[in-house]
Amino acid sequence: MAPPAAEKTPAPLALICGEDEFAVKKRAAQLNAQWCAELGGMDHEIIDGAVMNSREALEVLRRLREGLQTLPFFGSGKVVWLKNCSFLGDDRTASTGAVTEFLVSLADELKSFDFKAVRLLISAGKVDKRKTFYKTIDKLGQVETLSGWSVEDRDWATQAEGWADRALRERGKGITDSALRELVARVGPNVRQLDMEVEKVSLYVGERKEVDLKDVTAVCSKSKSARAFALGDALGDRDLPRLLRCLDEELWEVKLDPNKSEIGVLYGLISKVRSMILLKEMVREGYVQPEGDYNRFKAQLAQIPAAQMPQDRRFNPLAINAYVLYKALPQVKRYTQTELVRAMDLLLQCNRRLVSSGLEEALVLQQTLVQIVS
After folding, report:
1. How would DSSP label each residue in 153-199?
2. Fewer Cβ in 10 A, N or C end of the chain?
3. Which residues contact 200 (CB under 8 A, 6 or more apart)?
4. 156-219: which CATH number, 1.10.3720.10, 1.10.1660.10, 1.10.8.60, 1.20.140.10?
5. DSSP string, 60-82
6. pLDDT tens for residues 115-171?
7. d(CA 324, CA 154)
8. Does domain 224-373 have CATH number 1.10.340.30?
């Protein structure tokens, strides 16, 4: 009988990095607390690695080297945490010759460094994986890369729902399916805000063990990305009062943001109606069935042969985010195919009027939406 495998010793060197700033900070703080508890003592050191130029970066690196070489006076070891390091990517500071040389030199020292009494934790944003320093840490220790969610990711909503559900359970709360979907729809792909809204709704329900839809709608804020979807959702729901209210909010955003325009608002509506036309046709052809569970709906999409869909992404429903299609699934029942085609024609006329007429843009958009929904 073979002897039991020895338990793997945790690597004394770790890099936590990625574009998800909130997740990186949370995970790094968790690992730092774990290491400090394991080693005991009071010699642990935190070095702020957020710098503005190469001079500051070199000073941080000198402090890091000094921290590694200074042995602990109390306890069995010390943790050195280089926090929020901003010069491991490919920006100007990271590419400076002096900083690059120092990092290469430090990487060589780490290869022969005695980590018996010291653990090194580095947390950073974007990291250049081609550089020697990253490759050395990856070889000697552990690297965790935490990428942020994006609306371009087809499964971001599933990941966000799973994250929110776990976060609520950690607080001793459950949540209904409808409430969970609404929470994620309001926040969008933003971990930091999702954490804040989970905390907010947990406090709101008090001693109750389950969060329901009314709780979410009562206290959870809508992010900018969620507000952008709100206009299309109101159109899909055929809710004229809410639709006009959302339009007013969007037009107010246009006045405040120079990067937004009335034409941009119109194009968002065109995209919504196009996705509803494509989805309605998929239902008619039997490719998808009305489904209340998001994961089962995604499974239906995965079974559709890609060869049977248009090559042009503008007319390919599989190129649309799965969660956007899922949200539109109950909405297509509120319109006939003829009404949706007519809506596209009205939006085209609206486009021409916005470009060529001297009428007020808000009035043109309002008239078009009333014609579509009525």
Report:
1. STTHHHHHHHHHHHHHHHTT-EE-HHHHHHHHHHH-S-HHHHHHHHH
2. N
3. 219, 220
4. 1.10.8.60
5. HHHHHHHHHHS--SSSS-EEEEE
6. 888 999 999 988 999 999 999 999 999 999 887 777 666 667 778 888 899 999 999
7. 9
8. no
